[in-house]
Fold each of these.
Amino acid sequence: MVWISERFINRMKKNKRVLGMLNFIRLFSRLTSHTVAAKSSASTPKKVFELAGSLLSQDSLEDPSELQLLLAQREKIGSTALGYGVALPHAVSRQIETPLIAVITLAEAMPFDAPDQQWVDVFICMILPYHKSQSENEALLKKAAKIITNPALLSAMRESQTNQELYQSLLTTTVPEHA
């Protein structure tokens, strides 16, 4: 887990190379090398959600099957695919205080009802705290969508062959300040 002080962030804001990393770390401070999976063989949404439940439970006391169920139930409401081969499955839980995030890339893309009809090979799975307002959670999802659909970051994620490479690509790829 990575913690960065606001003072450090303010000092680094002028350094655009570091800014993308800082935005990502601040936004997803719960992301760890144990909550990413590179080149997964998951071939159905159910298998992706099973893997996501397992990854998301790494740093929480949540039951993996409960997290999987939350993601699957939310997906039934409507597709969380963003386009560009990316999906942002998310759900809300009363059991957590801070957002949980897992990042999964697939060895083979799968159909996921994307608005651009592209098959999805990058999943950013999030469980958000129920106690946060809907507008706070929506703002977090919007920020995540902007950062994660950055072409340089997507390329680096897709090129990552191991979990450690994927985690490092998330921390070191430059994302423009407006993201």
Amino acid sequence: MAQQLAEMIVRAAGVTQDPASTPAQRQEAVAFLESLKGARRAGAPPPAGASPAAPDLSVVVGAAAELTRADRPLDVQVSAYALLTHAVRHRWDDLAEPERAAVGQLAYQHLGDGECFFKEGKA
């Protein structure tokens, strides 16, 4: 499920950045990405205003974490970071302990990546 969602996020991020996309296509892609912020907790009904078919928050976090890798296109990484930032800022209490640990580990890993970037004097 997380892999399928990751592919959908990649497509949506691409639509938002493609000059050939129509305004309606961009709006639909942005609405999809925004809808992921309303993901439900595992075993819980979706939050108010969210689609009944909204994926589990753990699936969204897993897909977003996968998409933050450096080998992903920048627009995909930015979209994934936005989802993770929202989860940490607004949904932290809805994350299970293993998910919190995974997000923390991911942040630490990316801090290390940034440290290497700055040490090389590229900033």
Amino acid sequence: MSSIKLLVVFVALIAELYAGGKMNVQTTTGSTQFNLADIIGITFEMDYEGFQTPVMLNVPSGSFNMGASSGESGESPIHSVSLTNNFIMSRSEITNQQYCDMLNYALVNHHVLVSGNTVLNTSGNQQVLKTLGSGYGVLYSDNGFYVENGSADHPVLFVSWYGAAFYCNILSLRNAKTQLYNQSNWICMNYGSDGFRMPTEAEWEYVARYNDSRLYPWGNNLPTTQLANYGNNIGHASNVGTFPGGNSPLGFYDLGGNAFEWCNDWKGVYSSGSQVNPEGALYSESNGNKICRGGSWNYEGSFYMKTTYRGSVGSDGLKDYLGFRIARISN
């Protein structure tokens, strides 16, 4: 809502309250009357029109064989996984522009504060969400957050796992859905509610390998500079979706290359038994590292882009090669 619209609504509200001390609000279930005492103490969430839900693609429920018989990153043993929920996942990694829009929404609603060249959440267990400044994609001035020239459609980088979780919570808030991350301890409620979160490691691999256990998101052929941004062949992250030849069977961009992507899970050792809707290891088994997947613009080896490769970084990591995408159960 623009500032002019907001002012008109506010003036109308005050005028009606002043005239009679009461006002009628039309809702989906009828008309509800408020008096002045009802209004005092209500917290209104300020709108920010630029902050919108990214393009999301449908993923049907199903089963697949997860992992590999060997690998560089704890990819074995192969084990059967069933995902019993349909879900949606963002077509691309979240971009600098999308993250910047979220920060501006959060700023006007007092959910974030800036400290030096970092941005932090204001409530719960406070964490550094993202690094700000020239070379970091998003900057800050007295007027709010803005995107560095030429990088609006690059994946957001230098964002911690907490920063990704916070984005999901604020997007859920913006869309009147359940905030799945408890910011007092950052534990996520993966299933049973309709909010946004990062994909689980199993969901990410299922999307990347969909239906045929392929080695790479685009198939079984080795990476080339026409399929992905990797190995410093460009020298920086690129606009999301620049390499359509590297799209996955379901139409997802950049599951191989451009930026590693945070997953929801702590990293642990795979079980050999069948699993249903796995949620990853316990914190005590993880050495404090969260899973990241997909390879990056500055990683040389092709194996980083394999659909089974398991990277991991401390949850407070702010890396030039690491971003995220989001998911939501859609049943």
Amino acid sequence: MMWKGWKTYEENEASSEDKPHAKGFFDDFRSADDVFGEYAVELEERAGIAFVYAQYGYQDYEGYSHVIFAKDGALFEVNGSHCSCHGLEDQWRPEATTAAAILARPGVSDEAKACVREWAKAVAA
């Protein structure tokens, strides 16, 4: 069972909703497909992922990304960056984390923290 308001990758694929940015997606990431495409995530790794927060900023040939997702009841995050020579491909290395760790860490955006708080509240309900 997924948390209210969050959809797995498969549910998002089946959805006919056409929104400029799906819930939890910011800047150059508008959907799960954007994240998976930029990071070149293999199809078999995508199953069961529910994005909590995904952001990708690209300016002056440099890009930075922060992704937080839930899978199998656990929270993970991926950080990526690149110069003009490459993109985010080959940087999909999920690291286990907790909501408390993300909320306590300086430098995490207010948007990311708000999404994590909302996710944690939904999980606790």
